[in-house]
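Workshop exercise sheet. Pairs work together: one partner reads the sequence aloud, the other fills in the structure field after running the prediction. Swap roles for the next sheet.
Pair: D.N. / O.F.
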Amino acid sequence: MSSSDSRFGFVSFAETWNGRLAMLGFVIGLATELLTGQGILGQIGLG
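Structure field:
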């Protein structure tokens, strides 16, 4: 990666990390839901 390549905006690097972090957040949310027996909205007081 050269110094002129951007890491922000709609570039491949940013989109790859966005996807990885979204998948990680989904798995953590699902695991928390299974462990607590409450949905995600219930955990934050909206459901």
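Discussion prompt: The mean pLDDT is 87. What would you look at next?
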